[in-house]
Amino acid sequence: MSDPNVYIMLMASLPSPEALFLAKRPPLSRLKLDRRLRVLRPEDARALKLTEQALHWGEIPLTMTDEEIVARAKTATREIESETVRLMIRDRLEIRTCMVALRRRKRGEQAPAPGTVWGFGRWTSHIARNWNEATFRLENVFPWLREADRLLKDGDSLPLQRLILEQAWKRVDRRRGQHQYDFEAVVAYVIKWNIVDRWGRYNNEEAAERFEELTQAALGEHANLLEEGHA
C-alpha cells in the first residue's frame, strides 16, 4: 500500500465532482466512495476519519458542546501529519467560528468572555475584541463576512447556506494546490463530496426551513460550532 501508484489509481477512478451548485447529488454514492477508499493506508484512513469527525455534521452529535467540538478538532490537527489536511480543518472551522459569532451577535449576545471556549482557530480573541464591528475587522481575511451578516439579518437561509459552502469549497481548492494524486487530494475530494451532498440535501426553500427549525429545536438557546450557517 506504500506504492504511490495506488493513490494515483484511486484518484483516477473517482468521477470529477460536478460544478458545486449545479449538482443535484454527489457524482457517486457514499457507499461506492467508501468502497474505493478501502485502498487507503491504515494511517491515512485514520487521518481521513479524524478529518470527517472534526468537520461533518453526520459525525458530530447535536449534544456536543463547543468544548467537545474544539477538543475533537484539536485532536485531529495534533494527530494528522499532513500540514495541508490540518489547514483544511482549520479553514473550515474558522468559517464556522465566524458564523457562530454572527449568529450570537444577531441574538443580542455579548462577546464571549476571555478564556471561554466558543470557537476554533486564530481569530477567536480578535473577534471577541471587535464584537460590535460589522465584520469583526476581518474583511481582509474573510471578505464574504459582510454579505453573510446581511443574509443572516434578512433571514435568507438558502443564499446564506450557498455563500458559506462556496467559501468552504474555495478554501479546499486553495489548500489542495499541487496535490493531485496523493492523500491530500483524497481528503480534498471527500470534503468536496460532503459539500455537494450537503447542498443537494438543502437545495430548496422548504428543506432549508425544516433544517433551520430542527437545528434551533435541538440546540435551543445555545449557539455553537454546529450552527455555522450551516456548512
Key attributes of the depicted protein:
single chain; mainly alpha; globular
Characterize the structure shown:
Helices cover 60% and strands 0% of the residues. The chain has one domain (4-10, 24-219). Helix 4 runs antiparallel to helix 5. The chain is mainly alpha-helical and 231 residues long. The radius of gyration is 18 Å and the shape is globular. It starts with a helix and ends in a 12-residue tail after the last helix.
**What is the global morphology?**
globular
Work out the count of structural domains.
1
Number of helices: 10
* Poorly predicted tracts of residues: 217-223
Structural class: mainly alpha
Q: Helix and strand string, N-terminal first? A: HHHHHHHHHH
Using DSSP, what is the number of strands? 0
Give a brief rundown of this model.
By secondary structure, the chain is mainly α. The protein is 60% helix and 0% strand.
Task: Describe how the helices and strands are arranged.
Blueprint: H1 4-13, H2 30-36, H3 42-55, H4 66-79, H5 83-106, H6 124-129, H7 145-154, H8 157-176, H9 183-201, H10 205-219
Helix pairs in contact: 3-4, 4-5, 5-7, 5-8, 7-8, 8-9
